[in-house]
Structures are given as structure tokens and as C-alpha cells.
Design brief:
It is built from 18 helices and no strands. The protein is an all-alpha fold and about 500 residues long. The protein folds into three domains: about 180 residues, MFS general substrate transporter like domains (Growth Hormone, Chain: A), CATH 1.20.1250.20; about 55 residues; about 230 residues, Growth Hormone, Chain: A. The two termini are about 30 Å apart.
């Protein structure tokens, strides 16, 4: 069974030779995956017009990718440990590319949605196996720098994805944009064949039952969360999916304790240090995504900003993610406590989300500037530190599983936050306006008349209440992180080797 390296265990043997292609190949793969998460939504309007569809079938172009990504990441990471991290990365890049190629030539929304799910599966493998390749290839400060670069690239992809995708679509059409992704994906797969292979020591079987249960559980739960805002939480299908998903998750958890080759080793999530750093990534994702996805609509509808001005304003949130990760790692190299930095970052995310409760239609940019900078800076610190610190506590045989777990948390958080934020905003608006159809239009930024005081007031109040919920969730998670990572001495493999405190 996989296990976490104990606090006093000897360090893993240093890697004698580092493949020069490992870092650039993984980073380009991560950039592709991140851009496809945030940038595909820009193509929806053109895709809907070309394929003659709208509503839920069209929305699943994005939702299907996110669901498959979150559901498959943990399985991909565990599989990489067993059969080879390079092998899984190359295979995942090819699957990712095949999905994009199929989307580019599809003439049916059904085929398109299926192809996007396929791409999500490939994206899961790229992220999980990519993180495992970095953890296996690098050690000590070099590992921290590699993961900081990975976080920077992921943040860059999320930040510039909509802009670059929009430019591609304007030049080549939406099909041409998917072709470009296909070509770059093939190059990533080709480059990955020149990296060094690594896998867990010893031969172990695969827990196919556990993997199937986990994918089924997460898929059912995420499907319910994604569809509930449109169908209602009491819809029989939603209730059935929630109950079935929870049941499958419970059976999965029990089975992992007995499995000789678990998909998710119980000892992994039982380790306080690893769990604490993992929850830090979850906390910052929860605090970041709501503002990233939904604030631009408010800025345009209530603040009267143009789409371009709203996009520039959002750089206050995304800009720090491009520069802070490497700065955080540099501070750790100068012996600044990583624990202190992550606690400061969580405080910034919590305070920033509570700060967005000051949102109003008057002087909107001035009001949101400081909260957005705080959230973006907190997210950037987390990108730079959390993954590297978490992975440094994991035994070499389990780095794929650990990378899969971290990215599963992020993928699930993306879908959960987007669905929950949308549902909360719409529910509050409906209660305030007394008309579900009118509330739906207002939440999408379509006011019945410019500057309508009733609708503006309802939208602003609903934003305040939703942000209050996000802030409370982030605060509870941040306290849990603080307890887990400061409740005792957690020595990583690198600390044991170098004697450096975190």
C-alpha cells in the first residue's frame, strides 16, 4: 500500500540526471489544459450558431470537460505511479489532442460534447502525470521552483485563455482555434517521449473497482451540482444523482481501506501536513473562482463598464497570479517560513472576499481594486507554494496519486464553486424580485432598463449575500489549514535531507 514518508524516514535518492525537456513539456501541457478551462467559453456563441444549438447541450461543451477533468485526475495519477508517469503523460496528451481534433470537425452537438469529455480525460492525465513527472525529476529547491513555474503557467493560462482564444477565433474561426490546440497537443506528446520515465517501485495491481466507483461518484455528484441550478434541487433526477453519488463515495472510501493497491491511499489523506497543504489549494480556488467567473458580468451590467474595460479590471485579480508564485518561492529560499506565507495568503483571500461585499454600482473599479489584488496575491502565493510543499511530504512511489488528488480538489472546486455561486445568486435574485425569469435575465447581466434601481439593488444585494457565503467558507477552510499545518512538526523529505525548516 502507498504511504506517506514518515517524518524521520531517510530521504529519497537524488536524481542523477535531469531531462532538459521535462519542465518545458510539462509546462506547455499545463498551459494548454488551463487555457482550455477558461478559454472555451469564448467560443460558445459561435459554436451554438454553427451547430444550431443552445441552452444545456451547448453549456456541456464547458461543463463536460470540467466534469471529466475532475473525475479522472485522481485515477490518472494513481495509474501513472503504476505503469509509468511518462507513459500516462504521453497517452493523455494524445487523448486530449484527439478530443480537440474531433471537436474541430464535428457537425453535431452530441459528438462535440462527447469529444469535450474525451479532452477532459486527457487534460486530467496531463495535469496529474505532469505534476508526478516534476516531483520525480526534481528535488529540494529545484522542485519548489518547478511547481512555482507550474502554478504560474496555470495561472497564466486561466488569465489569458479567454483573450487568446478570442483572438484565435477572430482569425481562424472556432474550428481553427481547436485545430491550433490539436497541433500544439501533438507537439507536447512528441516532446514527452524524450523525457525520463519513472514509476513506483515494485509491481502492484490496479484497483479497477475503486477507480470505477470514484469516477462514478464524482461524476454523479458533479452532474447534480451542474444541473441543479436549471432543474431545481428537488428534481427527482437531481436527488437521485446526489444520493447515488454519496453512496458510491462511501463504498469507495470503505474499499480503499482494504485494497492492496488503492486509488487513494488512506494514509495519504490521513497525513495532517499533506492534507493541510492540499486544503490550502482548495481554499484559494474557492475564493478565486467566483470573482473570476461572475464579477465581469456585474462590472458591465451594474458598473457600466465596456467588455474591454471589465477585462482590464479583472487583471487586478489575475495579474498577481502571473508574478507572485516565483516571488513566494524566492522568499522560501531566503528562509522565510512557507507556513507563514500560506497563512498570510489565506488571510488575504478571506479578507478579499469579504471586501467584495462593499461592491456597488458607484465607483465600482475603485471599490473592487483592493479586494481583487488581495485575492489574486493570495492565489499566487498558493500556486507557488502549496503543491511543492504537499508533494515534498509524499513518498516517491505515491507522487502520481498525490498530484492526482491535488488536481482533483481543484477540478471539483471549479465545478462546485461555479455551480453553487450561480445557484445562490439566482436564488437570492428570485427571492428579491419575485420573478424567476426576470431574475435569470438580471443574473446574466441583462437589465430591463439601463440603471434600473430595483434590479441594480437586487443584483448588488444578492452579490453581497453570495460573497458573504464564499467568505465564510474560505474562513472555515483557512482555520482548518492553520490547525493542520501548525498543529505539529511536519517534516518533508527535503527537510530531512537538508535540515531546512518550512
Amino acid at each position: 500500500m502507498d504511504s506517506i514518508t514518515s517524518r524521520t524516514s531517510p530521504p529519497s535518492a537524488p536524481v542523477a540526471r535531469v531531462s532538459p525537456l521535462t519542465l518545458p513539456v510539462v509546462l506547455i501541457g499545463v498551459l494548454l489544459v488551463a487555457m482550455s478551462v477558461s478559454g472555451t467559453a469564448v467560443a460558445l456563441s459561435s459554436m451554438g450558431e454553427d451547430l444550431g444549438t443552445s441552452g444545456s447541450p451547448l453549456n456541456w461543451v464547458v461543463a463536460g470537460y470540467n466534469l471529466a477533468f475532475a473525475a479522472m485526475t485522481l485515477v490518472a495519477g494513481s495509474t501513472a505511479d503504476r505503469i509509468g508517469r511518462r507513459r500516462v503523460f504521453v497517452g493523455a496528451a494524445l487523448v486530449f489532442t484527439a478530443g480537440f481534433a474531433t471537436t474541430a470537425v464535428s457537425t453535431s452537438i452530441v459528438v462535440t460534447d462527447i469529444a469535450r469529455i474525451v479532452s477532459g480525460v486527457g487534460g486530467a492525465g496531463i495535469m496529474a502525470a505532469g505534476g508526478a513527472l516534476l516531483a520525480a525529476e526534481f528535488g529540494g529547491p529545484a522542485r519548489n521552483r518547478a511547481f512555482a513555474l507550474m502554478g504560474t503557467v496555470a495561472g497564466t493560462g486561466i488569465a489569458v485563455g479567454p483573450t487568446l482564444s478570442g483572438l484565435l477565433i477572430s482569425v481562424t474561426g472556432w474550428r481553427g482555434a481547436f485545430v491550433v490546440f490539436t497541433v500544439v497537443g501533438l507537439l507536447v506528446a512528441l516532446g514527452a517521449t524524450r523525457t525520463r520515465e519513472s514509476r513506483a517501485d515494485g509491481t502492484r495491481g490496479s484497483d479497477w473497482t475503486g477507480g470505477t466507483l470514484f469516477v462514478a461518484a464524482l461524476s454523479l455528484l458533479m452532474f447534480a451540482l451542474l444541473e441543479a441550478p436549471a432543474r431545481g434541487w428537488t428534481h427527482p433526477g437531481i436527488v437521485l444523482c446526489l444520493l447515488a453519488g454519496l453512496a458510491a463515495l462511501l463504498v469507495f472510501a470503505r474499499g480503499q481501506r482494504r485494497s492492496s493497491s488503492p486509488v487513494l491511499a488512506p494514509s495519504l489523506v490521513a497525513d495532517r501536513g499533506f492534507l493541510g497543504w492540499s486544503l490550502a489549494t482548495l481554499t484559494t480556488s474557492v475564493g478565486f473562482l467566483g470573482a473570476l467567473v461572475f464579477l465581469p458580468t456585474y462590472l458591465q451590467a451594474a458598473g457600466g463598464l465596456s467588455p474591454a474595460a471589465a477585462g482590464v479590471t479583472m487583471l487586478l485579480l489575475t495579474g498577481p497570479v502571473l508574478v507572485v508564485p516565483l516571488a513566494a518561492v524566492t522568499l522560501v529560499a531566503w528562509r522565510v517560513s512557507a507556513r507563514l506565507l500560506i497563512l498570510v495568503s489565506l488571510a488575504l483571500v478571506v479578507l478579499g472576499n469579504f471586501g467584495l461585499m462593499l461592491l456597488s454600482s458607484s465607483h465600482v473599479v475603485a471599490v473592487v481594486a483592493v479586494p481583487l489584488l488581495m485575492i489574486g496575491t493570495g492565489m499566487g502565493v498558493s500556486f507557488g507554494l502549496a503543491d511543492g510543499q504537499a508533494m515534498s511530504m509524499v513518498a516517491a512511489d505515491s507522487v502520481g496519486m498525490a498530484a492526482g488528488f491535488l488536481n482533483t480538489l481543484r477540478g471539483a472546486a471549479e465545478a462546485l464553486v461555479i455551480a453553487a455561486f450561480s445557484a445562490a445568486l439566482l436564488s437570492l435574485l428570485t427571492g428579491r424580485l419575485g420573478d424567476a425569469e426576470r431574475a435569470a435575465h438580471v443574473s446574466a447581466g441583462h437589465l430591463s432598463s439601463p440603471g434600473s434601481p430595483t434590479e441594480l439593488g437586487a443584483l448588488t444585494w444578492s452579490w453581497h449575500m453570495t460573497q458573504l457565503g464564499v467568505g465564510v467558507v474560505c474562513l472555515v477552510l483557512a482555520v482548518a489549514v492553520a490547525v493542520l499545518i501548525t498543529g505539529g512538526r511536519h517534516r518533508s523529505r527535503d527537510e530531512t535531507k537538508a535540515g531546512a525548516g518550512i
